[in-house]
Design goal:
Blueprint (H helix, E strand, L loop, with lengths): L1 H20 L1 H30 L14 H14 L8 H15 L26 H26 L4
């Protein structure tokens, strides 16, 4: 699982580097980049929910792709561990997860040109600064890594 999470993120980071060097490649790679980052976020949340959920009465959840559901489960777990958000990171990460959820609610928008009923998926036409996206997500993945370390420390500390 950890290898998959790292793999999707590394693939997205690598494609951002390529896209930033070549405008033509950027136009071709933007959708795979968004999909890879979104999937890495989903895997991060599923990892945390499935690893630490038992401490908060949260069952493993492999069935949903809905980032809002996974985020809510993560928040419950974080609360159970008594995480203190003194720097406001929770709200920042929540807004980024919400933005990915809004852009791609069920993990279809950047994989296919149509939804499951054949209806075209609207494509955002505005310019996306991939360097900023990569930097922001570096912080988000750092946040999740820190949560993992904190939860693990408390879970293995004993009574």
């Amino acid at each position: 699982m950890v290898g998959m999470m790292a793999g999707y993120r590394t693939a997205a980071d690598t494609l951002v580097d390529v896209a930033m060097r070549d405008r033509f490649q950027r136009d071709l790679l933007v959708f795979p980049i968004l999909f890879l980052y979104r999937h890495a976020l989903e895997l991060e949340l599923k990892f945390l929910v499935n690893t630490y959920g038992r401490f908060a009465g949260v069952d493993p959840n492999w069935k949903t792709h809905d980032l809002r559901v996974l985020w809510a489960e993560f928040v419950k777990i974080s609360g159970e561990f008594g995480a203190n958000d003194s720097d406001g990171a929770d709200d920042t990460v929540a807004s980024i997860v919400a933005e990915f959820s809004k852009m791609d609610p069920r993990s279809f928008s950047n994989r296919y040109p149509v939804d499951t009923k054949g209806n075209p998926i609207p494509v955002e036409k505005s310019e996306l600064d991939l360097a900023v996206l990569k930097d922001v997500l570096d912080g988000v993945f750092g946040y999740f890594n820190g949560c993992d370390g904190y939860f693990d420390h408390l879970a293995t500390a004993g009574p």
